[in-house]
Amino acid sequence: MARTAIEPVDIFPSSAEYDFSSSGDFSTLNTGDDNGVTFPWKTTLFLALRNNTGSPANFTIKIPTPTDLDKYTTIVDDSVLVADGDISFYKISQVLKQSDFKVYVDCDVAAELLPVKTFTNA
Predict the structure, then answer these.
(1) How far is residue 113's CA from residue 89's CA, in Å, rounded to a whole number?
(2) Over the stretch 58-100, which tens digit does the pLDDT of each residue have?
(3) What CATH number is associated with residue 95?
(4) Which of 13, 18, 54, 78 could form a disulfide linkage to 61, CB 3.0–4.6 angstroms apart?
(5) 20: in domain
(6) Where are the beta strands (DSSP E) in the chain?
């Protein structure tokens, strides 16, 4: 399988009481390396990682190795362990941006993910 393309969800100030525990906006990840999801990279994103699978979920957030360093080292991907019944939040950073300007996330079980656009009051 290949990664599934998904889009971030907007949560505006008026929805400050957004219910992450029962939201239907989450995407279920296919299991295994390179079978998760991909979405456009933005610094204003965070991830909601939800696990209702009955066992722990290990989310892998892929970190690319810069081309000029790939012959010297390999960057280790970040991982987040989420217990069954829990939701974890993860802030997106510049280091996660792949060469196609997307973020890649995999999981070892069919847990759920929701990329969320944050907002600023200007």
Answers:
(1) 10
(2) 999 999 988 777 788 878 999 999 999 999 999 999 999 999 9
(3) 2.60.290
(4) 78
(5) no
(6) 4-5, 9-10, 27-28, 37-40, 45-50, 57-61, 78-82, 87-91, 102-107, 112-117
DSSP bridge pairs for 10: 117
Reported pTM: 0.89
Distance CA(5)–CA(29), nearest Å, equals 11
Q: What percent of the chain lies above the pLDDT cut of 70?
A: 92
Q: Let me know if residue 75 belongs to a domain.
A: yes
122 within domain boundaries: no
Helix (H, G, I), strand (E, B) or coil at 85: coil
Q: 74 vs 3, 30, 71, 81, 95, CA distance in Å? A: 22, 25, 8, 22, 14
The HSE-up count of residue 120 (CA atoms within 13 Å, CB side) is: 4
Range of the domain at 61: 4-13+26-117
Tokens standing for 33? 């390396």
**pLDDT score for 119:** 64
